[in-house]
Structure formats: structure tokens, C-alpha cells
Design goal:
Number of strands: 18
Family: Belongs to the oxygen-dependent FAD-linked oxidoreductase family.
Protein name: FAD-binding PCMH-type domain-containing protein
CATH topology of the largest domain: Vanillyl-alcohol Oxidase, Chain A, domain 3
Number of helices: 12
Number of domains: 3
Keywords: FAD, Flavoprotein, Oxidoreductase
Distance between the termini: 39 Å
Pfam family, one: FAD_binding_4
Low-confidence stretches: none
Cofactor: FAD
Helix content: 25-40%
CATH class of the largest domain: Alpha Beta
CATH architecture of the largest domain: 3-Layer(aba) Sandwich
């Protein structure tokens, strides 16, 4: 095929190709036949036209956080939507129009001056569109639910090049399927989301030596069962590298960290939020003296810094599951498998608190709109045989507590167990996907189901 036939897609080895193939997940090769950064809706339409004319599959990626979640891009064309438009806030309607390519940091910066924020991810560098299409688990989620429920409309370029709006009133079946359906529908170029009022939060992290996890983790779980919806936390075992940017009391240590946020909305709500934090931390700090405590009252712009997610691309291998509560034997098995009291290659073993609004099905939700699970588990380490063995060991320890389902954005390797919905839902999703993409132009971007 003449390279001119692929224009505007860039060829391997060229600067434009490298820019378009940028990916946060460095463990997954990104080697498409051609790659292109789309700056406008017209660019995206042109990209779909080229793919359709040449018969090459079309894949979509922005930040590349989930690059490993679907089939390799080898032999496909890759379009990277990075719209030139800015995030637009309507403070009266409490909505934001967000172009493809925008990160959560962009939305938060635009919304906070209006006393608003988004139901966003733990990292400001994550792309908004991909997070929302995968449902979205937020530190505001126990109060406001799955982030995809905040979507009001989605503008998408379909396989035939048509620019279509999906919402509760326009193309409602497509709107339902896009929110957690597993990809392969088209190229989303803009979303409109509902914002929430938020001027103050209580956020931070308390850290102990990992050896204290046998006492603290079950106590944290007992608290989580009756915790008010204003608070969402995570419990993590972290292997902290000895880097200059790491606090010296943590560098090179295996630690237990509890972090998250209590939403206060305004100044008048801060005392109640601080009491919620005290109800969590007072019993825990009574069991074991922390190494570090950073909880404070701040503006919503502080939340993306709380979880200390890496800002730069890294290679990693991971595993995930939605879980029921663990009993005493479960915590013991899990903590032993996660390397507490011994060495481990795992960088993080996390339990994200669910419940509250996460468990409440909205009247107009999408495919992934809620989950009855108690916790979301996610663990990762640098790629390698030892990491694979340890992830398998943790998976075995958690087997009695797995619900059989996963949260879409956390299942980021194509070969790991993953299931977002049941077979009846799957059949409906497939029918809608076949309607909007009958030729399978985007089929390589469909997230597989693996039990």
C-alpha cells in the first residue's frame, strides 16, 4: 500500500507517529501501521474515512493508561484524539463540556473557581473520556456514585463517519452501551458531564509500617461497613522506592497507607467532615502509632495529589477484582500472599472502599452504573515472572471473596480475568455495537470478557 493512501496517519519512526503512540503503560508495545493525533472533529472523520477505505482496523487511544486492556494495535491504524477545544464550564447548569484528550486536572482547574468539581479519578493525568466510558470509581463515589452516571451527552464519530450525539433523549440505546459497554463503538470527541458543588474537602493519608496491617486492615473493614457516604477511602500496601522525592521516613519501606477524601461542600460542613475522619482514625491510631499523617482541610484541587499516583509513564502488570468482605482467615491469607512480613515485588496492593452510592442503581444508568461489591481490589508490580507469581498468589488468596465481576477501568491487561456484566447485558451490548459498527472497524478495541 502506498504510504500516501494512509495520510494523515504518520508512518513508524516519524515524529508524528511517536507523538500519537505516546502511552502511559510502557509494558505494552504500541506499534500500529500508522498513527495520527486528531485535533478536531474533522480530523477524526477523516481518520475513519481512511480506515474504512483501506480496510485497516481503527483503534483509539489518548493517554494510554488502558493500552493493555484490549488486543494489540499491531497492523491497525491508531487515532489519538487531542481536541484543540478547551473545557467549558456552565456554572448555572453545573455542567462541563469536555473535549477528547482533556485530563481530569483540566476539568478540576476549570470547575473549582465556580465552587464546583467533577466526580473524577484519583489521578489528574488520566483522560476524562476513557475514565467515564469505563464507569469511573472516584473518591467522591460513595456520595455521588459511579462517575459515568454524571454523563449528560456523548458526541461520537461512528464507523461511517457520521457525527452523532448520544444522550438520554438522542440515541438512548447507544448512550446506555457507551457507559461501561467495553468499547468498539466509535471515536468519542466530546462529553458533557454534570458537576457537583464542592468548596472544601478533608483529604490526606495516614501511614504505618506494613507489619501493622494484620491489626489495622480488619479494623478498617469493620469501620467501612457503616461509614457515612461522605467519605471514600482506600487501604494500600505500598513498596516505596528510595527516591529523592520520597519522604525519608518512607523511602525503601513496605508500608500500609489509608487515604481518601471526606466531602465537606462548604466551610460550614468542615466540622462534620473532620468528625467523620476522627471516627475512622482514632481507633486505628490507638491500635498502632502512625509513621506519617497528612490529612488536612483543603480545596478540591488537592484531591488528585492525595493518592500519589505516578505522573510519568511506567511499565506495570496488574490484577483486579470486585470483592465481598473478607473474614479473619481471608485477611491473614491475603496479607501473607501480599508479602507482609517478607519481601515482595508488588508495588501496590489496594482495597478501594465501595458501598454507599456506588451500590445504588440509578434510574437512567448505563451498562456499568453501580456495584453491590464491598471493595475494589487492584494490585500491580513491574513486569516480570516474580510479579506474575505474586499476583497469582494474591488472586488465589482472594478467590473465596471474589464476586466474579471487575470494574472496567481497573482491568488493564487483556489476559486477566474480567467481567463487567452478565450474558443478557452482553447480548444487548453486542446488538448495539453491531448496529453502529456493522463492519467491525473498531472491533479490536472491544474489551474481552474472561472469567
Amino acid at each position: 500500500m502506498n504510504t500516501a493512501d494512509l495520510a494523515p496517519f504518520h508512518q513508524p519512526g516519524t515524529p508524528g507517529y511517536l507523538d500519537a503512540c505516546h502511552s502511559f503503560q510502557l509494558a505494552v508495545p504500541v506499534d500500529p501501521a500508522g498513527a495520527f493525533v486528531a485535533r478536531s472533529v474533522t480530523d477524526v472523520v477523516r481518520a475513519t474515512d481512511v480506515a474504512r477505505r483501506t480496510g485497516l482496523p481503527l483503534r483509539v487511544s489518548t493517554t494510554g493508561h488502558g493500552m493493555g486492556a484490549t488486543a494489540p494495535v499491531t497492523g491497525a491504524l491508531l487515532v489519538n484524539p487531542q481536541m484543540d477545544d478547551a473545557v467549558r464550564i456552565d456554572p448555572e447548569a453545573r455542567t462541563a463540556r469536555v473535549p477528547a484528550g482533556a485530563r481530569w486536572a483540566d476539568v478540576i482547574a476549570a470547575a473549582v473557581p465556580h465552587g464546583l468539581t467533577a466526580v473524577h479519578g484519583s489521578s489528574g493525568t488520566v483522560g476524562v473520556v476513557g475514565f467515564l466510558l469505563g464507569g469511573g470509581i472516584s473518591f467522591y463515589g460513595r456520595r455521588f456514585g459511579v462517575a459515568a452516571n454524571r454523563l449528560r451527552s456523548i458526541t461520537i464519530v461512528l464507523a461511517d463517519g457520521e457525527v452523532t450525539t448520544a444522550s438520554a433523549h438522542e440515541n438512548p440505546d447507544l448512550f446506555w452501551a457507551l457507559r461501561g459497554g467495553g468499547g468498539g463503538f466509535g471515536v468519542v470527541v466530546e462529553v458533557e458531564i454534570a458537576l457537583v458543588p464542592m468548596r472544601r474537602i478533608v483529604t490526606g493519608m495516614t501511614v504505618w509500617d506494613a507489619a501493622e496491617a494484620h491489626r489495622l486492615a480488619p479494623a478498617w473493614q469493620r469501620w467501612s461497613v457503616t461509614a457515612p457516604p461522605e467519605v471514600t477511602t482506600s487501604l494500600r500496601l505500598l513498596s516505596v522506592p528510595p527516591l529523592p522525592t520520597v519522604p525519608p521516613q518512607l523511602a525503601g519501606r513496605h508500608i500500609l497507607a489509608i487515604d481518601g477524601a471526606v466531602s465537606a461542600v462548604g466551610d460550614a460542613d468542615v466540622p462534620a467532615a473532620e468528625r467523620i475522619l476522627s471516627d475512622l482514625m482514632t481507633p486505628l491510631t490507638g491500635l498502632a502509632e502512625p509513621i506519617m499523617n497528612t490529612w488536612t482541610t483543603a480545596g478540591p484541587e488537592a484531591l488528585p495529589l492525595t493518592h500519589m499516583d505516578p505522573a510519568e509513564p511506567i511499565p506495570f502488570h496488574s490484577d483486579t477484582a470486585l470483592l465481598e468482605p473478607l473474614d479473619a482467615d481471608g485477611w491473614s491469607s491475603l496479607l501473607n500472599a501480599a508479602g507482609v512480613g517478607s519481601s515482595t515485588s508488588l508495588l501496590s496492593v489496594e482495597f478501594r472502599q465501595l458501598g454507599g452510592a456506588f451500590a445504588e442503581p440509578p434510574a437512567d444508568g448505563g451498562v456499568f452504573s453501580h456495584t453491590p461489591a464491598a471493595f475494589l481490589y487492584w494490585a500491580c508490580g513491574l513486569p516480570g515472572e516474580q510479579t506474575g507469581k505474586e499476583l497469582a498468589g494474591v488472586r488465589d488468596a482472594l478467590l473465596p471473596y471474589r464476586t466474579g465481576f471487575t470494574a472496567p477501568t481497573f482491568a488493564d491487561h487483556v489476559d486477566q480475568p474480567r467481567r463487567t456484566y452478565d450474558e443478557t447485558t452482553r447480548a444487548r451490548v453486542e446488538r448495539i455495537r453491531a448496529t453502529v459498527d456493522p463492519g467491525g472497524l473498531f472491533a479490536g478495541g472491544v474489551e474481552p470478557i474472561r472469567d
